[in-house]
Design brief:
The structure holds 2 protein chains of 2 kinds.
Chain A: H1 12-15, H2 29-54, H3 56-63, H4 72-104, H5 108-131, H6 142-156, H7 158-164
Helix pairs in contact in A: 2-4, 2-6, 4-5, 5-6
Chain B: H1 2-9, H2 11-14, H3 22-25, H4 33-60, H5 67-94, E1 102-105, E2 110-113, E3 116-119, H6 122-131, E4 135-136, H7 142-154, E5 166-168, E6 171-172, E7 175-181, E8 184-195, E9 210-222, E10 229-233, H8 237-251, E11 256-260, E12 283-287
Parallel strand pairs in B: 3-12
Antiparallel strand pairs in B: 1-2, 1-5, 3-9, 4-7, 5-6, 7-8, 8-9, 9-10, 11-12
Helix pairs in contact in B: 4-5
Classes of the chains: A mainly alpha, B alpha+beta.
């Protein structure tokens, strides 16, 4: 008999072995869904940036307590800060959009990068929620948190993993 | 960090000169950092999903009647994200990963019992099933999933409706056949087929080419384990098994049946959706190797 006996459970050594090379060439729903969710996350970021730009003065004065009372210099300074924040935010969102595209095309490092950031974001929200008693409601951060968790669920699923780690043909790995 | 891991885990393939059959050349390393990372994300996502379900549930009380929508969202999150992930994690630990006469669902739960075996090559199986009046099920795709929902709601016939994936030997079924009853997509005969691995023997030492699991979908309902909407199966799976064998034998004079009596007595209690199942445990082995293969007509 050429088939060796298998143990009665899936031992850790098996689970951490490199993924089996059963080629899953069709893109699974989980991968598509994950990429779409990352795009949605980018859209949520765009909305957040736009609303920040519109409500910048109000946020500074009322929420952060920065006095801007007709002080020309402080006004110019706050505008500069806003420009930097918007610029950095735009770059981050653009990178995220590229990552979404790479995930859709089956890149494994893009998938893991996005999962690392989703994990960090979720962990941060969890510390806020359980530690600092910040309220998480639909009006505050539930949507972005839900998107992060859904991204993590979709991209960590077995199908998405198998697709991202499928054996590549020569054409798809130009770096060798 | 993630990039380093990704590069490292590309190892089994990446280290080999490109071209040819790289997989056979290099043996996979025993532990992949990437796989450990994936395992961590898998479990972490499960825990995070529990939290998400809790947040959605508490939100549902804050919106009055509108909160009913949130309650619906809570059920979707629970049934389609949280419970499958938790089952996947737990069944990885406690469900045997060798052949025990049961298929497993995509969540790792024990699914339909394997109650049929076939001998013969793939073309012969297809020919025998077609001749016996069975329709091959479509693969699960976005389009076919939408069509099965639409036909269930409108009660229209969809006789090539896809069947859900069940796993044996760690693989999804190779193909499935079905017969719709009274043009109602909620009720159907269906049987899934898996090719056995080369050289693999049944408990007891018998070699068969195909294993199959046939059950009768009697209604649509909620799964006991995941709360998902699913087909409920008829408890007496022997009726369905005998129906499959009878139709194949009646339509194919070349087919032969060899009965392995009491093959799996006492295994079966519930399938992956929590439906009760009872069986006498016999395993008919249908030899369709002699069935003539006619060129397949356009499906």
């Amino acid at each position: 008999m050429s088939v060796e006996k298998r143990p009665a459970f899936e031992p850790p050594a098996v689970l951490v072995r490199p993924a089996p090379v059963a080629p899953m060439l069709r893109r699974p729903v989980a991968t598509t869904f994950g990429a779409v969710l990352v795009v949605l996350r980018v859209l949520a970021g765009v909305i957040w940036l736009v609303s920040l730009g519109l409500l910048w003065r109000k946020t500074l004065v009322e929420d952060l307590g920065v006095p801007l009372d007709s002080d020309v210099e402080a006004d110019a300074g706050s505008n500069a800060v806003l420009a930097v924040v918007l610029g950095v935010g735009a770059v981050v969102l653009a990178v995220e959009l590229v990552l979404a595209l790479l995930i859709y095309r089956g890149s494994n490092w893009a998938r893991i990068t996005v999962m690392v950031f989703a994990t960090l974001s979720i962990t941060g929200s969890a510390f806020d929620y359980f530690g600092a008693d910040a309220e998480i409601t639909l009006r505050t951060t539930l949507v972005t948190l839900a998107l992060d968790i859904l991204v993590l669920l979709a991209l960590s699923s077995r199908n998405a993993r198998a697709y991202a780690r499928r054996p590549r043909s020569a054409k798809r790995r130009p770096r060798g | 960090m993630g990039e380093v891991g990704a590069e490292a885990s590309g190892g089994p393939i990446g280290g080999v000169p490109v071209g040819g059959a790289p997989i056979a050349v290099e043996r996979p390393r025993r532990v992949s950092f990437n796989a450990v990372l994936d395992g961590f994300f898998f479990v972490y996502a499960g825990i995070a999903a529990v939290w998400l379900a809790w947040l959605v549930l508490t939100e549902s009380f804050a919106f009055g009647w509108f909160g009913i929508l949130f309650f619906l969202a809570f059920w979707v999150v629970l049934a389609y994200l949280v419970l499958p992930r938790l089952h996947r994690i737990l069944t990885t630990i406690y469900v045997p990963d060798y052949f025990i006469g049961r298929a497993r669902t995509s969540d790792g739960l024990l699914g339909d019992p394997v109650n049929l075996a076939f001998d013969g090559d793939e073309a012969s199986v297809h020919a025998a099933m077609r001749t016996a009046g069975w329709t091959r099920a479509d693969d699960v795709t976005g389009a076919s999933s939408w069509r099965i929902i639409a036909s269930t709601v409108t009660r229209r016939s969809y006789d090539e409706a896809p069947v859900s994936p069940l796993f044996l030997f760690g693989r999804q079924q190779d193909f499935a056949y079905q017969q719709e009853v009274e043009g109602n997509p909620a009720r159907r005969h269906h049987v899934r087929f898996w090719r056995t691995p080369d050289g693999w023997l049944l408990p007891g030492g018998r070699r068969v080419d195909w294993l199959a699991a046939g059950t009768f979908d009697r209604a649509v309902g909620f799964s006991l384990f995941t709360l998902q909407i699913t087909h409920k199966i008829d408890a007496d799976i022997d009726i369905e098994r005998d129906h499959i064998v009878d139709t194949v034998i009646a339509a194919n004079p070349e087919a032969r049946v060899d009965l392995l009596a009491d093959f799996s007595t006492g295994y079966h209690s519930r399938n992956g959706g929590g439906d009760t199942i009872t069986t006498d445990g016999d395993l008919p082995v249908v030899d369709v190797g002699a069935v003539p293969v006619v060129p397949e007509v356009a499906r």
